[in-house]
Write a structure and sequence with these properties.
The protein is an alpha+beta fold. The protein has one domain: Alpha-Beta Plaits, CATH 3.30.70.2330. It is about 15% helix and about 35% strand. It has one helix and six strands, in the order ββββαββ. Strands 1-6-5-2-3-4 form a six-stranded antiparallel sheet. The two termini are about 20 Å apart. The relative contact order is 0.29.
């Protein structure tokens, strides 16, 4: 498990803040010019909330590109607990 937060929330002001217990989807966004190692944080419906910060995204992006699936659960205080499922 990796603990992180949602960065760039200000880019998605219409999105309600995630609530504790909510499950979120993590999606690679290699075409993002600002940072090709970006990992987007979104609701299962696809509503964007922001991105993982650069440092944890670097490690997670490499694992996701190698086939690992990732999701996040919102903890108290808005922290994210990121879980990986490695391909067999």
């Amino acid at each position: 498990m990796l603990e992180s937060y949602i960065a760039s929330r200000d880019r998605f002001p219409a999105a309600d803040a995630p609530r504790p217990g909510e499950r979120l989807r993590l999606t690679r966004e290699p075409e993002r010019a600002f940072d090709p190692l970006s990992v987007r944080v979104e609701r299962p419906c696809g509503a964007r909330l922001g991105y993982l910060p650069a440092q944890p995204a670097q490690v997670l992006a490499a694992l996701m590109d190698a086939g690992a699936a990732a999701e996040a659960h919102v903890a108290e205080g808005g922290r994210l607990h990121v879980y990986l499922q490695l391909a067999a």
